[in-house]
Amino acid sequence: MSAHASTVDPKKAELWDIHHHSHDVISTRTLGYFLYLLSDGMLFATLFAAYGVLSYQHSYFGGPTPAEFVKPWYTFGQTIALFLSVLAYGFGMNALKHKSKSGLINGMLAAFVLGVIFLVLDIHDMSHLYSMGITLASSGGMSAFMVLTQVHATHIFFGLIWILVMIAQVMTKGFTEETVGRLLTLRMFWHLQAVIWVFVYIFVYLWGYIS
Amino acid sequence: MLVDLPGGWSPLLGRLAWSQIPYANPILAPLFVAVVIGAIIILGLITYYGKWTYLWKEWLTTVDHKKLGVMYIIIGLVMLFRGFIDGLMIRTQQVWAVGPHSSGVFGSLHGYLTPFHFGQVYSAHGLIMILLAATPLLVGFMNIIVPIQVGARDMAYPYLNALGLWITAAAAALIMISLFVGDFAHNGWFEYAPIFELQYSPGVGVDYWMWTLQLVALGTTLGGINILATIIKMRAPGMTWGKLPIFVWTSLAANVIALTSFPALQVALGLVAADRYLGAHFFTAGMGGNLMLYTNLFWIWGHPEVYFVILPAFGMMSEIFPTFSEKPLFGYITMVLASMAIAGVSWLVWLHHFFTMGAGPFVNTAFSVATMLVGIPTGVKVFNWAFTMYRGRLTFNAAMLWAIGALFLLLVGGFTGMMLAIPAINYMVHNSVFVVAHFHSMLLVIVYAIFGSVLYWFPKVFGFKLDEFWAKTMFWLFSAGTVLVFVPMYMLGFMGMTRRLEYVFDTGWQSYLTVMELGIVVYVFSVLAFFILLYVSVRDHAKNRVGADAWGTSRSLEWMTHSPVPFYNFAVLPHINERDELAWRRQHGIDQVRPEHYEDIHMPNNTGVAIILGGLTFVLGFALTWRIWWLCIVSLLAIILLMIIRSFKGDPGYIITGAELQRMEEEAYRREAQVLDSHHSHPVSGGVVGNAMAYQRNDSSK
Ligand code: HEM
Ligand SMILES: [Cu+2]
């Protein structure tokens, strides 16, 4: 095996890292966060699988099905709110490139407000269902519906807290290696939640509506 | 929306009440007294010797990957001991409660454990052994060894590393407290739907099981991310993928599995929680629930998990064999490919845990074939190890013995696994003790590899070797125990004995069970030998001190730095030229070359946040188990707040100057020189003196 054959001349070999190579903090951080998001993606994949198994006719046990209460346009409003939020975040990050603190904060604030709108619409929707007596205890199918959508909403909730924290950190600390790294990871998080929302919207709401 | 609870509940204490404390239990009450006395003695000793600040500063707040690894291993060993006691109890009940005429004590009709208590014992045994013994032990070794082997000063995220440890510790504490407050689950370590539903298991046992597992999953995921990022991002200059030590490769494969599979478990458990706490109907019988959904989700994680635990063990064996065969690992590339193949295929086989679900011939055949595919890369590994030893200069010290034992057990476990992978056979022996014997053979591979690694890497971490005589004694006792317990178990499996029997109806099995009991007694002696081993080794540590390269024939980076490893690992990071860098340097006589000058280095600060967060997760788990809602909210808020505060503070780290580094290094070299003088010669493992060991033996490795 040639890989074993010594290719380096031991007399001239460089033995120590004298050129002092250092690890790039931001990329190490974003890689780790990317790995976390991978596991978050698996979490949603599993929830979707559970939803798939529990969305047969018999899963609703004769009770309400999504076809009876999903309002596609209402949920489309949520979709738009979340997408605009991601867009606003993107504008904010663009401002970061120009080292504009106010631009970044404005973008983040807009993203925050739009995220809140998404969440308020979701909560309103859920309490509406609750008032009709539709809860996650209604049937296996409804359990899957509620848990999948609300786990996503919980992610949005924590994302919103994080946006607030980041606004505060940028205001107090400015653009340091730490805050910029976190802004990047938060962007990854926010984008992933939007992408997952696409799946939720299509496979849970729309599919549920037509079937 | 919260479910109605059977039994009492109060806003202040949730379901907690005095009646939940088993003070009348003849086994638990004395144990509790013993634990309290033991704890008082330990705490008293720490206070007496004034070690609290030392403990806090050096251990509890540390972010040093080696110390965290050592603490992982300590947790793992303690839990291994607890799990072993459970095993001893199971065996004793089964040898006692045979046939209708067997006696019964302590309120049990037969034997000394009531069915409910027996169920808790075997459930806790399984969960503890896989998730709180094997997993922390392996994660501990990965923690210690991986950063050094890739030539880094620490993990990619030292603070996250500490957090992972303390969350694992919280999980261990939660399952331990279930002994004395309330009950544990009694339906097996992987539980079944719908018996874990609140209707059928109204106590807190299932909740303890669920939150413990959830915490382990969280801790292991965090640890996995860290190890992956460390391997990808922190390698020393020159260490290309082709030069990565094999243990690092297997750790990589294992943590890819962990990262992708643990979320499935977290979801499965989360859905159980939704059923039990919120009245959802995921896994209920009726109301549209699906029982087999749970089983599928659990094993979609469960099977990858078994490879998550065995792959690092394979890596350990791959480090031990070359060192004590004085040859490079045979077939490095195939070894890497085999690890990755195992990791990949591990995802496609979960259904073999319930062929009897009856999914139909096509599904069963597909999963059967996929399962057997795993045998190919595993076989490749076995042959590679055999060829590594073939015509090597073998040293049969204790570490090597454990590794060879692991190899034999792997054959036994692998072949019985293949048998189980054939649905026609599986229908006959599913849920029999044959299955139990199969996976114990496999899990013992891990235990053997771990004890081999304890012996192998101990001198690296603590600077002195463990006593050979007692290590070998322990090995032989342990192996005798293994044979005595598990050979009869395979036989009983063929005879149709099902698993988890608290009463054995067939008196014809008595003699086998007696042999197994004898085996467990032999195990007890091997545990004693282990304690003696620790005592003797610590007593004689001055005699057994070692230099950087403790075995004289080792090959990878960790043996290039001092033993014990300084907290900064390498004063100057090495530049990697070859796979098996140290062996290569030694062959060319440049292994003693020191760096010419030292530069400033940057290290992370200690932090108390991680252990506080760990404590809070324990409180959260406990509050959730007992449904003390206010405490849940308080602890959750505290966790979030603490995380935010920490993120504002950040950690600037601190600088060690080059001059300081030089002083510490010279000191270490001086100590090492003394050690080598007192040994008369260079420490070597075999009969060969000095540097005779070659980087490569051309005659046999091709
Ligand atoms: C050659 C590779 C392997 C094959 C073909 C194999 C096959 C099987 C099969 C078919 C079963 C299901 C038996 C039944 O319940 O009817 C099983 C169970 C099990 N195996 Fe393996 N296995 C292999 C490797 C491993 C490894 C490496 C481990 C762990 C380190 C392991 C641990 C287990 C465990 C824990 C169970 C049963 C869990 C339980 O029911 O409580 N196996 N194995
Ligand atoms: Cu399996």
From TrEMBL, chain A:
UniProt keyword Calcium present: no
Keyword terms: Cell membrane, Membrane, Transmembrane, Transmembrane helix
Name under which the protein is recorded: Cytochrome O ubiquinol oxidase
Gene3D superfamilies: Cytochrome c oxidase, subunit III, four-helix bundle
Family, similarity comment: Belongs to the cytochrome c oxidase subunit 3 family.
PANTHER family: CYTOCHROME BO(3) UBIQUINOL OXIDASE SUBUNIT 3 (PTHR11403:SF2), CYTOCHROME C OXIDASE SUBUNIT III (PTHR11403)
Membrane topology label: Multi-pass membrane protein
GO biological process, one term: aerobic electron transport chain
Automatic annotation (TrEMBL), chain B:
Membrane-spanning residues: 27-49, 70-90, 122-146, 158-181, 208-232, 244-273, 293-317, 329-350, 362-387, 399-425, 437-458, 470-492, 512-536, 603-622, 628-645
GO cellular component, one term: plasma membrane
GO BP, sorted A to Z: aerobic respiration; electron transport coupled proton transport; respiratory electron transport chain
Membrane topology: Multi-pass membrane protein
InterPro entries xref list: Cyt_c_oxase-like_su1_dom, Cyt_c_oxase-like_su1_sf, Cyt_C_Oxase_1, Cyt_c_Oxase_su1_BS
Keywords: Cell membrane, Copper, Electron transport, Heme, Iron, Membrane, Metal-binding, Respiratory chain, Transmembrane, Transmembrane helix, Transport
Localization, UniProt: Cell membrane
SUPFAM superfamilies for this protein: Cytochrome c oxidase subunit I-like
GO molecular function, one term: metal ion binding
Highest taxon, organism lineage: Bacteria
Main subcellular location: membrane
Family to which the UniProt record says this protein belongs: Belongs to the heme-copper respiratory oxidase family.
PANTHER family in UniProt: CYTOCHROME BO(3) UBIQUINOL OXIDASE SUBUNIT 1, CYTOCHROME C OXIDASE SUBUNIT 1
Name of this protein: Cytochrome o ubiquinol oxidase subunit I
